[in-house]
Amino acid sequence: MNAFNIIILAVLLFFALKGLARGLVNEASSLVGLILGAWLAYHFYPAVSQPIRAVTHLPAQICSFLAFILILLITGIIVHVVGNIVTTALRLVMLGGLNRVGGLLIGTAEGVLLLSLLFSTATAGFMPEKLKTRIRNTEAANLLAQTGDKILSHWRSGATTQQ
Known about the structure:
Blueprint: H1 3-56, H2 60-92, H3 96-122, H4 129-136, H5 139-162
Helix pairs in contact: 1-2, 1-3, 3-5
């Protein structure tokens, strides 16, 4: 077992335990909160930045940044609170165990996604050849890198077809 395998196991174990502890609803609500918050922030930061600028008299760029962060945080907090309420309700109807198992699965999937993207980036053309070779020679790291390559390729092709 080499260093890459140890890193992979540690990251997957961390994400699996995090998912188990938080449960499916909280893990999913965190992801939804981030995606929804980013979408809302991207679309509404110009409107929110204007009252911030009127009150603070800061430069427009800083007010835009603050508006984006504010929308992102408020959305994340609201979705987090809703997730906690749903999690509590699931515990009351004796579905807490199922929620935790679902959390374990989604947490592990998050870890796989993160590792796939990291190893894919680590094997990109601009990275040192020695690192790329070590990753390609480690079966698990190579599989994750190939998965990340496919994900990034799909995202890139989706972005170009929408433009």
